[in-house]
Write a structure and sequence with these properties.
Largest sheet of chain A: 2 strands, antiparallel
Protein name (chain A): Peptide ABC transporter permease
Shape of chain B: globular
Number of helices of chain B: 20
Strand content of chain B: 15-25%
Membrane topology (chain A): Multi-pass membrane protein
Helix content of chain A: over 70%
Oligomer: heterodimer
Subcellular location (chain A): Cell membrane
Number of helices of chain A: 15
Keywords (chain A): Cell membrane, Membrane, Transmembrane, Transmembrane helix, Transport
Strand content of chain A: under 5%
Radius of gyration of chain B: 25 Å
InterPro entries (chain A): BPD_transp_1_N, MetI-like, MetI-like_sf
């Protein structure tokens, strides 16, 4: 197991190197002046000397290898460049945006997992009942809904009409009166551990709408996977044997079926978590949630290359580590799986 | 039934709640875009300009809602102008203190203005000060023609309370520039103590042209004298301003201002309707959604901006395929296609301005005759302006290129920047009308990313494109120069030069006689009308959307968005 983990971790620098070369290579298809012009905030800012100055400063007309070498030298000094989109060094931008996304992703994945697994099991156990049919139809409908439609509906009802929840990450006035120096970084978990209940409650109020939207859009996929796997397992000989021995259904499902049905579910949850950690762009935009996804999409639109590379490196690291965790869980859940 | 009743009562509750002033004393302004910097020497955008306008102050300030009239702010009185309009002597107001408690001195003013010139950030606002003070349109660079000695001579302190500006030549728009957010004054001691430029020649080169957005004041504005101070900045999300209780005038009525970056329009509208936002940026197409909403008020006001078609008379065909065959054979255009004034006039007559304003801009714009838009000195409704006239367009295009254009036709790509539906609409109208004149005329409306439009414009690669210019300060020079002077922003891109115009523009900006200036700018507009280097399309009205409980909001087209000092709720 240790060798397996070590091998996977050692692959990471190679993956990151490959990604950075690829992104750098792709940007070379854009001419130096187009990349330089993307630094301008407005038509007016692009004065005649502006583009030439930017090309000179950032060596945009140098060959690929020179540009890549310059970037790599910066990286070895712990500098991923400056993010024009975040108006911060990329490392700082990642440091303040990742925690917000992580908090949303972790809360959302717990809700999605609890909801998706329980409803999936219920539909499997009550296969072909009205409940099963209703959930299946609703799942298909929810799965087909674009996130922005669900988001707009959720914000209209829960904020616009009912005014129960607010968009954003935290109420700005509360954050001021509570003496928070900033609304960046981790807020939920430190406040929870410090027992700052007014802040925790406010953060939950702000998380409700994005988490509801993500649960609505993402959980159908999980429900379907759980349902079909539990049904498959329930058909197995050992389940029939357990039934024949007179074990109650709950015990059969929990003790036998669920454990075996969980392996593909963990894979799905892993990929959902990767998606959530990479930032839910639309959800973050609609609910003004200051996470990494919104930043990355803005960076891509404005050809902010250091930011795009910084985000890609973060995303690749996330994918690798979560896949590694999923593989480790496989081994824990199913001892037949070995990684030697 | 029960559910409907529940929803209805919820809506009623919400509307009742919405009628009460939420968070009195705290103003929430939801906008789009964030804040690249708070450095006055670097900030050249509305977003940062708005924050600086509220925490820092200038020597002069626009009078109320009048864009062209100024009153002393940090100055004690209007300047004493001597030496044929080249020397401006300004006494400072007594009793003004910075938020760190230090009194305002002439040294602070000299330092603030000189620092902008010393930094001369690429794409920053320094050029606006360099032109009148140093007679150049280039930014200052180490080893260049202009050195620190020139900067030091241009602005000098005379005692503690007097500043002298020595202009390179008389410059009638100088007060407008001093009243703009690009001439903000801040505390020298704090800046020097924090490790910024020392204010002397010894280290000016070290601070020259820093990387944009990374200067000393990228995340926090310098210490100023304004009615508000920056309390907190949540990068990219919120700027929170706190009232300066020791302000030299009566303190502001608002205790705090929260400026939020909310990129989703629906969310901004919901926040406004819920009363969580007091001021909101709402795009024109969404105005019908908020019109009539309870508690929401819309104020329409003219902007000092001009959107136009630019026609390139010397197209650089390298690196693009925009010229097609490169000949007048119907499959392309020659690189100097627009050098024939008949082509330019034909295009101007083929544009349906009324349809553009009515159908695309939903009536919220006017059609200016030339560069001098409404609100500027020299604006007149009596000047000739282009009109949609099919017969006239036909006449010009038949005469163009000795009849070859009409006989062989052309294939022409025209451009707008991605997502700008107004510019796209304008080009679609031009395309439709030109193609209806002659089936051999083929116009392709193409969308390009914003950076590509800028880069290809700068490289003179574009053929025809729709672009816009907004005022830096309320003076016709700020439009005449970039549009018509041969070294200005657009003529360098479209290969336009008229030496007579160059002379007139120079004469108009150096003249101190306003009647003479009016006459000169009218003459300039007449020549521009005859030459048709570009086609003026529209001057937009901007919808300022707010809750009706917001009082005292001044709408001035030269403000960087809002000035919170006068606002209450």
């Amino acid at each position: 197991m240790f060798t397996f983990i070590l091998r996977r971790v050692l692959q990471l620098p190679l993956i990151l190197f490959g990604i950075s070369v690829l992104i750098f290579g792709l940007t070379q298809f854009l001419s130096a002046d187009i990349r330089a012009a993307s630094f301008a905030q407005s038509e007016k800012q692009a004065q005649p000397a502006f583009i030439a100055g930017i090309i000179e400063r950032y060596h945009l007309d140098a060959d690929f290898f020179t540009q890549y070498r310059i970037w790599l030298e910066q990286v070895f000094h712990g500098n991923l460049g400056y993010s024009r989109t975040a108006h911060l060094p990329v490392v700082e931008a990642l440091a303040i945006k990742i925690p917000a996304t992580m908090e949303l992703a972790l809360v959302a994945i717990v809700v999605i997992a609890l909801f998706g697994i329980s409803v999936g099991i219920l539909t499997a156990v009550t296969r072909n009942s009205w409940f099963d049919h209703t959930i299946r139809v609703l799942s298909i409908i929810a799965y087909g809904f674009p996130t922005f439609v669900v988001g707009i509906f959720v914000i209209t009802v829960f904020y616009g009409i009912l005014q129960w929840f607010e968009p954003g990450r935290i109420n700005t006035i509360l954050s001021l009166t509570a003496g928070l120096p900033t609304t960046d970084g981790f807020l939920f978990f430190p406040s929870l551990f410090a027992g700052k209940w007014d802040i925790v409650l406010d953060l939950i109020k702000h998380l409700f709408m994005p988490v509801l939207t993500l649960t609505f859009v993402i959980s159908p996929q999980l429900i379907q996977v759980v349902r079909s796997n539990v049904i498959d397992v329930l058909r197995q000989d050992y389940v029939r044997t357990a039934k024949a021995k007179g074990l109650p259904t709950t015990a059969i499902v929990v003790k036998h079926a669920l454990r075996n049905a969980l392996i593909p579910v963990i894979t799905v949850l892993g990929s959902i978590l990767i998606g959530l950690l990479s930032g839910s762009i639309i959800t973050e935009t609609i609910f003004i949630y200051p996470g990494v996804g919104l930043w990355a999409s803005q960076a891509a639109q404005t050809i902010d290359i250091p930011s795009v590379i910084g985000f890609a490196l973060f995303a690749a690291t996330t994918v690798t580590l979560i896949n590694l965790l999923v593989d480790i869980f496989y081994g824990i859940i199913d001892p037949r799986i070995r990684y030697e | 039934m029960l559910k409907r009743a529940f929803l209805l009562s919820a809506v009623m509750l919400a509307s009742v709640a919405g009628a009460q002033v939420k968070n009195p004393g705290i103003l929430t302004d939801v906008e789009i875009g964030d804040w690249r910097t708070f450095d006055p020497a670097d900030c050249y955008e509305q977003g940062c300009g708005e924050i600086l306008q509220n925490v820092l102050e200038t020597l002069y300030f626009p009078e109320g809602e009048n864009a062209s009239k100024f009153v002393p702010q940090l100055a004690a009185a209007m300047p004493e102008v001597t030496n044929g309009g080249k020397t401006y002597t300004i006494k400072l107001r007594k009793g003004v203190k910075f938020t760190n408690g230090q009194p305002l001195t002439a040294d602070d003013v000299v330092y603030s203005i000189q620092r902008s010139l010393v930094l001369s950030v690429d794409g920053g606002p320094a050029q606006l000060l360099i032109e009148p003070l140093l007679g150049s349109t280039d930014l200052i660079r180490k080893g260049g023609k202009i050195g620190f000695d020139d900067i030091a001579k241009a602005i000098q302190a005379k005692g503690d309370d007097t500043v002298v500006f020595n202009l390179a030549a008389p410059f009638s728009a100088f007060i407008s520039i001093l009243a703009s957010p690009y001439a903000n004054i801040y505390n020298k001691d704090e800046a020097v103590k924090a490790g910024d430029w020392s204010g002397t020649a010894k280290d000016w080169e070290k601070f020259n042209n820093p990387e944009a957005g990374t200067t000393m004041y990228a995340k926090k504005p310098p210490v100023g004298t304004g009615a508000f101070v920056l309390e907190r900045y949540d990068v990219g999300q919120n700027v929170i301003l706190k009232r300066n209780d020791a302000y030299w005038r009566a303190p502001a009525k608002l205790t705090r201002v929260i400026v939020q970056n909310v990129s989703d329009e629906n969310t901004r509208i919901k926040m406004l309707e819920a009363g969580d936002a007091d001021l909101a940026f709402v795009n024109r197409p969404s105005i019908p959604r908020v019109k009539g909403s309870a508690g929401v008020k819309i104020i329409e006001d003219t902007t000092l901006s001009l959107t136009a078609f630019f026609m390139n008379q010397k197209i650089n065909g390298q690196g693009t395929n925009y010229l097609g065959s490169g000949k007048l054979d119907g499959n392309g255009i020659p690189s100097n296609f627009f050098s024939d004034v008949n082509v330019r006039k034909g295009f101007a007559a083929a544009m349906d301005y009324d349809a553009l304003i009515k159908d695309v801009l939903l009536g919220a714009a006017t059609h200016p005759s030339s560069v001098i838009v409404k609100g500027l000195l020299g604006y007149s409704t009596n000047l000739p302006k282009y009109k949609y006239d099919k017969n006239l367009a036909t006449k010009y295009l038949k005469a163009a290129w000795k009849g070859q254009v009409w006989k062989n036709g052309f294939t022409l790509p025209v451009f707008f920047n991605s997502g700008n539906t107004k510019r796209k609409g304008a080009l679609e109208i031009l395309k439709k009308n030109l193609e209806s004149l002659n089936p051999k005329f083929k116009v392709e409306v193409r969308e390009l990313p914003f950076s590509q439009v800028i880069a290809q414009g700068q490289n003179s690669q574009m053929t025809v494109w729709a672009g816009a210019w907004g005022a830096d300060y309320a003076d016709p020079h700020n439009f005449a120069f970039p549009f018509l002077q041969s070294s200005g922003n657009y003529p360098t891109q479209i290969g336009y030069k008229n030496t007579k115009l160059d002379g007139l523009i120079s004469e108009a900006v150096t003249s101190t006689d306003s009647k003479k200036r009016v006459a000169l700018y009218r003459q300039i507009q007449q020549i521009a009308y005859n030459d048709t280097p570009f086609i003026p399309l529209y001057q937009e009205l901007f919808p300022f959307v707010q809750r009706d409980w917001v009082k005292g909001r001044l709408i001035n087209p030269v403000f960087a968005d809002d000035y919170y000092y006068t606002i209450s709720k």
